[in-house]
## 1
Amino acid sequence: MISIEGLKKVFSLNNKDVVAVDNLNLHVEDGDIYGVVGYSGAGKSTFVRLINRLEEPSEGTVKIGDKVITSLSKSDLRIARQDIGMVFQHFNLLWSRTVAENIAFPLEISGVEKQEREKRVLELIELVGLAGREDAYPAQLSGGQKQRVGIARALANSPRVLLCDEATSALDPETTNQILRLLQDINEKLGLTIILITHEMHVIRKICNRVAVMEHGKVVEEGNVIDVFTKPQQQVTQNFVEQLTGSNEEEEDVTELKEKFQEGILLRIQFLGESANQTIISQLVKQFDIHVNILQGKITQTQGGSYGTLIVQLLGPQQDEAMQYLKEQDVIEVEVIQHA
Ligand SMILES: Nc1ncnc2c1ncn2[C@@H]1O[C@H](COP(=O)(O)OP(=O)(O)OP(=O)(O)O)[C@@H](O)[C@H]1O
């Protein structure tokens, strides 16, 4: 488990103090893919760099397993860092070295013998899907392939923790999805704990099981992804969730929908993540003498189930009974927008 207590980082800039990370507390369980999301300047990059002491904290402790990282001497820190891989937004590859040589680099530093090194490099190349490209130079690779090299290099010393600092932010959407799938695969295959920093909520949605939202150097909200997505508490979290659900636009549309669909009952159904909710609409149509007119909606999948909203119109003799049935289901929340 990773345990972070009272972490603080103050930079001094033109004789002014900038508090980048401010009394940050966080607990990450083994095997988590833990997402940290926040707007630019929230302190995410500083935070992730404090974990392996690429930045020295001003205050606080970072504990990984039974090692207090923040109290280690420089030489002990070097050894402890073999347990903490890191992936960067701009890959940070060595441009004059081939793919295989880039991946071998951390193994050379930790003194692994040549034969063992070559074997490990081949395993890693296979793992990240770069077979056949071992002799290419970074300049000859696509962005996604460069990041695969970055990931393989980060995994070279078989770390227990992988820190990803905006690992997909320089990539197009399709490549982002491939890299996220690779991270998920590695998490499952190797049981690796991943802390992933991002400003993109869809990255959190795709692969994280837990999320922390950062603002002004602090964690302002945290929890299981599905809980935070379905019941965001803070304004900043609501803004991030709206990136995915488009609920901002939805509010504007509701007035129009009410005018356009004046018959029957208009309902907003919020799906709360349980997989059981997926057949609710079809069950409704089977059980009651009604028509369901789906007017608007966005349902999306997370690691914890589906969530999102649907706006529907119920029409027919049993529309009230159908509405009552929906209200009794505890895997959804139902709000009556209009009842003719
Ligand atoms: N080396 C530094 N010296 C002075 N101030 C810094 C330094 N590094 C970061 N900061 C400041 O600390 C704050 C947090 O920056 P940080 O880069 O950690 O945020 P972020 O959430 O990662 O944002 P971004 O995604 O834009 O990098 C910002 O106000 C930034 O200007």
## 2
Amino acid sequence: MPKLIPPVKSGESIELMITGLSHTGDGVGKTEEGFTVFIPLALPGERVRVKIAQVKKTYAHARLEEIIASSDERVDAPCPVFETCGGCQIQHLTYAAQLTMKQQQVIDAFRRIGGLEHTKVLPPIGMDNPWNYRNKAQVPFGQRNGKTVAGFYAAGSHQIVEFSHCMIQQPENDRTIQWVKNRVKELQIPSYNEKNHRGILRHVMVRTGIHTNDVMVVLVTNGEHLPRKKELLSSLIEKIPGLTSVVQNINKRRSNVVLGNENRLLWGDPVIHDYIGDVRFAISPHSFFQVNPLQTERLYREVKNFASLSGKETVLDVYCGTGTIGLYLAKDAKRVLGIESIAQAVDNARENAMANDIHHASFTCGKAEEVLPRWEQEGIRAQVIVVDPPRKGCEERLLDACVEMNPERIVYVSCNPATLARDASRLEERGFQMRGVQPVDMFPHTNHIECVTVFDRMEDKG
Ligand SMILES: C[S@@+](CC[C@H](N)C(=O)[O-])C[C@H]1O[C@@H](n2cnc3c(N)ncnc32)[C@H](O)[C@@H]1O
């Protein structure tokens, strides 16, 4: 094979027509030779001048220098740090166009990765007001020129971008973050330096319950000692309305993982609460809880529609977190069995079941890909299996065990269209047929999209 020589060089300025958006929200253009160039902040339909930044074998990354002809869908991003902060990628696109782009992203994933050309992908369910939706913020603390900085990381780096207001956080969350940040600076609590592993405060995590107004503040420290703890605590209690829980989380590891294993309750309750539908959930520092509560209700309603329960079914909630989907479905099912790998989330799921008087749901701690095949061998059967895996999707042995259990339906909730498309083609090869995909926009202004779909069993395995 002759070696391909890229037709562009680093530092070169070229003009391009933008024809699409990548799954990361970058504009995509092609040179005359058909060579692909990715350009952050460029939009489909735009003619742009770009400077090539990095050349790889089959594509290049470039910086936007000039918009020669602008897209009708371009808007001024309202957040002043949009272009530097890595939190949002597509605030410069109208919300209607964001939804169209996300639908196309799902269609493309099914076509390219799943080889499923004719998948029906419905228009995403969007938000009426696509701002102030997040109920959780994780703010890293660091040092710059000897001073404390706190904010969000810039895209693809650990450079902290400070902000005074985050437009996708719920107002209570946003206010709490700003307040804690300022107080930590005033009290001169030393922030963590990830280069030399010195300093103390690594992250502040804030979670709120929109239906309960509960607020949890988690102070992540590089060790047990938290200087000026009493002063910080008493001012938090005084100034943050709804404050329900203050936790110190100890994380001594040299790693990017935000939370360590040990939580110490400094004040209040160890959990906060929120509702999904009429089910009340406890949320601890470690537990996964969807970050957009309004859209979660819409997502779960879709799950319920796809599950079409009659009250006679055993339902599996695989990757159940704090048991949210299983407990939401419980009143329409005969029995619910959940599986989750984080022990604390399983404890929360059990407590959630008890607190809501749901006695026909049980939760098992373990890796789904190990527990489910074991259950299948033991003869456990379910009519409906719901899976809601992390971004990497389901392991093949898990899908095999689902198929062997011979359910009528498998409802698949996914935060990554690429792994959903891969797993969809595996389930279709194993005798299940996908009905259609419903994207739900859980993360407006970012490149993420959640999907829910259902696979019906085609042949009876007896
Ligand atoms: C996308 S979340 C879904 C949680 C829940 N269904 C919800 O809607 O809140 C995925 C969950 O899977 C859990 N998880 C990750 N890997 C797992 C595994 N191998 N086995 C079981 N659970 C796992 C995570 O801890 C997380 O709670």
